[in-house]
Amino acid sequence: MPPPAEPSTDADRAAGALWGLALGDALGMPTQMLSRAEILARWGPVLPWFEQADPGQPLAAGLPAGHVTDDTEQAVLLARLLVSGQGRVSPLQLADALAAWEADLRARGSADLLGPSTKRAVDAVRVGVPASDAGRQGDTNGAAMRIAPLGIAASATELGRLVERVVEVSSLTHGTGIGLAGAAAVCAAVSAGIDGEGPDAVRQIAIDAARLAARRGVWVAGADVAARIDWACDLVRGLRVEDAVDLIATLVGTSLATQESVPAAFAVVSLFPLDPWSVVRVAASLGGDTDTIGAMAGAIAGAAAGASRLPADAVRVVRQINGLDLDPLAAALLELRHEDAETP
Length: 344
Prior knowledge:
By secondary structure, the protein is mostly helical.
């Protein structure tokens, strides 16, 4: 891992959060919903670079190497809503934006549409269910996968306030304690990374945020997200990468369940806390919901390390293949953060 030319700044770390998210998503695109064994047989222990999706890929058939999925697209959608709303997003605004996004994808023939919790909530709002009730069953990882922009726009120094913001932008689709805990953990980790906190502090702030958010949602049966983040990071501490990957895949779990995928993302980050490129490559190699785990882990590690620690040629590929220009968006989100800090 080459060191950055100079110490990272908050601007570098904000850009790192968005580019880390996009790179993790793109690396995980062809491996999503494959087993660890299938990935191992096809690409080896750790995916070396971006790969094209096979024609039989269930969600991304035939997409070119470096193409992103719904994780990046929904994160960008949320980021633009935050910027246009000066840091605020109403539930109905989000519902309309997500419905329009899915309609556009359908028109393009994509199979990578809204996840189950988000789809159920958006459909409920369409038929008149109040926004406050639409997400009462949402416990999958859709809120956590797109929350990173809020972590750029808002500081974690006042954790209760940050959690309130997470609830505000997530409860429409993921109003359960589990769904909100996962989103709060990722958001707080990104925010703490941008504040320059070290790896141990980032993880503890994320755990504290998950505990706070879990109390704000509807109770559903499921493991405690905060406890599982702590346990998953301890589980892989000091292990060889190959052994850690096997334990994450088999014990932590890599499904779209928040209580599996969010702890899995934190466990991968703990292996390489300041090496976001290794983080996203390993995340893409786990099997299961690799694009989402890669996006979450990439955002957390990218925020901590900065865009300067991501390979420039990898950023170039994702930028060109997808027509993405994330740097101005990161700068606009960071400006919201600075404005928020100046508000009495």
